[in-house]
Amino acid sequence: MAFGRFHFRRTLKHLRRYRHIVAVLMKYGMEDAAETIRKRYRVGRSGPADAQTIENIRQHSRAKRFRMALEELGPTFIKFG
Asked: Which end of the chain is more exposed for a tag (fewer CB within 10 A), N or C?
């Protein structure tokens, strides 16, 4: 029984992280990557970011937006980039 509870908590933690990743990717205009993750892990969409913030972000090149997204996601993603 203890194993089942641990597994459930770990799964919830992962789902929250996937949802955060999807939200950040959407914020930086990478809907295609976000949609792939969302479908694979069956993660719901989170609330939309501020429209003005999104407009300002989308003025940058795709490469710069990708870098900004990796920075927001943290050190592991920075190493990945």
From this structure: N
The pLDDT tens digits of the residues spanning 44-67 come to 666 666 777 778 888 999 999 999
Cα–Cα distance measured from residue 37 to residue 42, given in angstroms and rounded to the nearest whole number: 8
What is the spatial distance between Cα 47 and Cα 51, in angstroms, rounded to a whole number? 12
* Rounded-to-10 torsion of CA 50, 51, 52, 58: 110
Both tokens of residue 21?
């990743």
pTM for the structure as a whole: 0.73
Residue 36 half-sphere exposure toward CB, CA atoms < 13 A: 4
Tokens for 33, please give them: 């990557």
